[in-house]
Amino acid sequence: MKRFLALSVAALFIFSSAVFAESTVAEQTADITLFSSNNSNSYDRTVAVTGGNIYIDSSKNAIVACDTDVTSVTIPSDIVEISDSAFFTCTKLTSVTIPNSVTKIGKSAFNTCSNLTSITIPNSVTSIGNMCFMGDDNLKSVTLPNNSSFKEIPTNCFSGCTKLTSINIPSSVTKISDSAFYKCQSLAQIELPGSLGSSGIGNYAFYDCAFTSVTLPASVTTLGSYSFANCGKLSQINLDNVSSLGIHCFEGCSALKSVTITKLQEIADYAFSGSALTSFTAGPSLKTIGTGAFQNCAYLSSVSLGTALTSIGSDAFKSCTSLTQIKLPDNATYASTSFSGCSSLNSISVNSSNKNYSS
């Protein structure tokens, strides 16, 4: 079955009657060829591969489509680009060999290739598109290109690759974008390069991964929202160089017992909600603890709040059932629900110089 997928991925998942009306469907026995009137991925060359054909636009030296029954592909050595959605939903594809001539791999190029188990991207490739390998749920091993121009693991690149266990992050990479490794539930270790920028880890970047520990490079000072949320095996992390956390950053990290912070000025909303922290010591710069920041941390029994703290948000320590006492520093205030559900909390003591409360 020959497919041309210039349509957006969203349109392919929600195939509206309007798009269908603009398409010409040609039926030849069991084969169905779908052409969109908006399709820019025309071809003028056909190459036979195992299980069918690939289709090439010679003006760009680009692969634009393939037959859905293709199982193995060795890409010709004159190809420089694998276009957007070129192998999208080629569910029988098990093997791809990419030559050093290729410099670009487009959006969703290998999206939902559910039988692809490994891939090596040659050093000639300088960019890969969003959602490139999204949903490849049998992909176990990836080798990324090592060259100075390869800067980003793009949005949703490996999202849903639930069996991915091995991947290298080249030293040239400055950004791991939103949801890049979302729900890579078998990814137990990763080495993050020092080349990552200050905001080099995006929202949901490692959501629901299998890490037991993570070493953040000193260059990373900001973590995106939900960036490590639901990493249920993560037991420790050092945030000494991090000055800003996104909301829900470590929410649901049910094995996280130890965290070290120094430069944080704010614990974002729900940042450690549902974690296994047993103690927390605020760094000297911490000014704000956000809404629900430590909510449902049932094992949290010891909290030391720094002198810079001024505000504790609603439900910040809600249902921290092991917490027995807490002492507020000089200028700190708390909401009426900050400690709700803390069934073992016997006392909240206040420094004598705190003008907001008295013990």
Q: Your description of this structure?
A:
- Helix content is about 5%, strand content about 25%.
- It has helices at about 10-15, 15-20, and strands at about 25-30, 30-35, 45-50, 50-55, 60-65, 70-75, 80, 95, 105, 120, 125-130, 140-145, 150-155, 165, 175, 215, 220-225, 235-240, 245, 260, 265, 280, 290, 300-305, 310, 325-330, 335, 345-350.
- By secondary structure, the chain is an all-beta fold.
- The strands form 10 sheets. Strands 3-4-5-7-9-11 form a 6-stranded mixed sheet, with no helix packed on it. The chain has a 4-stranded parallel sheet with strand order 21-23-25-27, with no helix packed on it. Strands 10-12-14 form a 3-stranded parallel sheet, with no helix packed on it.
- The termini are far apart.
Q: Would you kindly provide a brief summary of this structure?
A:
The protein starts with 8 loop residues before the first helix and ends in a 9-residue tail after the last strand.
List the helices and strands and how they pair.
Blueprint: H1 9-13, H2 17-21, E1 23-28, E2 31-36, E3 45-49, E4 52-57, E5 62-66, E6 72-74, E7 81-82, E8 95-97, E9 104-105, E10 118-120, E11 127-128, E12 141-143, E13 152-153, E14 166-167, E15 175-176, E16 213-214, E17 222-223, E18 236-239, E19 244-245, E20 258-261, E21 266-267, E22 279-281, E23 288-289, E24 302-304, E25 311-312, E26 325-328, E27 333-334, E28 347-350
Parallel strand pairs: 5-7, 6-8, 7-9, 9-11, 10-12, 12-14, 13-15, 16-18, 17-19, 18-20, 21-23, 22-24, 23-25, 25-27, 26-28
Antiparallel strand pairs: 1-2, 3-4, 4-5
Query: Could you give a short account of the major beta sheet?
Result: 6 strands, mixed
Q: What global shape is seen?
A: elongated
Broad structural category: mainly beta
Taken as a percent bin, the fraction of beta residues is 15-25%
The largest beta-sheet arranges its strands as 3-4-5-7-9-11
Mean pLDDT: 88
Order of helices and strands: HHEEEEEEEEEEEEEEEEEEEEEEEEEEEE
Q: Give the low-confidence spans.
A: 5-39
Distinct helical segment count: 2
Helical amount: under 10%
Work out the number of β strands: 28
Question: How widely separated are the two ends?
Answer: 76 Å
Radius of gyration: 25 Å
